[in-house]
Amino acid sequence: MSPYSDVLSRIDKACKESGRSHFAPVLIAVSKTQPAERLAELAQLGQRDFGESYVQEALPKREALAALGWANRGLIWHFIGPIQSNKTRPIAEHFDWVHSVDRLKIAERLSAQRPAGLPPLNVCLEVNISGETSKGGGLPAELPALAQAVARLPHLRLRGLMAIPAPSADPATQRAAFRHLRQLLKQLRTLDPDLDTLSMGMSDDLEAAIAEGATHLRIGTALFGARTYTERTDT
Questions:
Q1: Which of 18, 41, 47, 196 has the smallest number of Cβ neighbours within 10 A?
Q2: pTM (predicted TM-score)
């Protein structure tokens, strides 16, 4: 069985066990550090959603995919990494989703720089669900004010929340973190009933995320294997 088939099987099994057979989450293939040819292989198998963390890597990769014949063939691009202010314009111009908005300044720049001919940019607010100082994301208490401000921006569509909990091998601990994010979204929906997205779950905890209502999974290692990272300065 290929890694892609294995991931799809894990998702299908988790959905059935959670009573979600008719509501499978979107699989985002986290393709950072992977060459365009690897993405094209997955696209040939039916994968359409790809997640990137580095603007300066993502844009040449998209051009390479276009040269391979994948332009205008329904690929959906998700930006999932931390965002520096000087990178908001290319993100606003070239991505369909941004999962890592954690402050109003970034949201305002994305809205102002979204080209007029494109549909509103789908955004999620990143939450520091485990309170880790090494991770980005806003605090849960800050969410209502931030969500209301972002929802008013004209060229963004606020969709929901994203989190990367502290790693744990314990399924109960995994589920508790994801349950917390789900509860936070439920609270926000009293302000905005149209919020519909829980971007949570990666290779090691996708089953727990599905059980707690994930709508989008961000899967890299299980699809592509362990990555070899080099030092980067662009985000």
A1: 196
A2: 0.94
